[in-house]
Known about the structure:
By secondary structure, the protein is α+β, with helices and mostly antiparallel strands. Helices cover 52% and strands 15% of the residues. The relative contact order is 0.13.
Amino acid sequence: SLYYIFVLKNTIFICSGGVIMKNEFCIIFKELRLEKRLTQEEIAKKLNISIQSIHKWEQNKCLPDTFNIIKICEFYNISSDYLLGLNNNKDDYHKIIRRFLEFLENG
């Protein structure tokens, strides 16, 4: 799918297939951090990202670039679609494929 991202009155929106969705990244990112009981400073160090970036992301002032989205997804072992609020499936696609292949092997 092709996604468009735009900002209106300091709120980030994602448009896909003619449907406009308010960006949920800031909420999801913060929830993931709190689930692991990490401070903004701790997650910044673990991801090698500035604490200012973490703060801006959680305040919905900007989105991370593609490289940082990948780093976040790898750290939390989640899909980018989940991180961006495009679906509710937290599982990483690699994990889903691995489970399916194990199912085929084990019957």
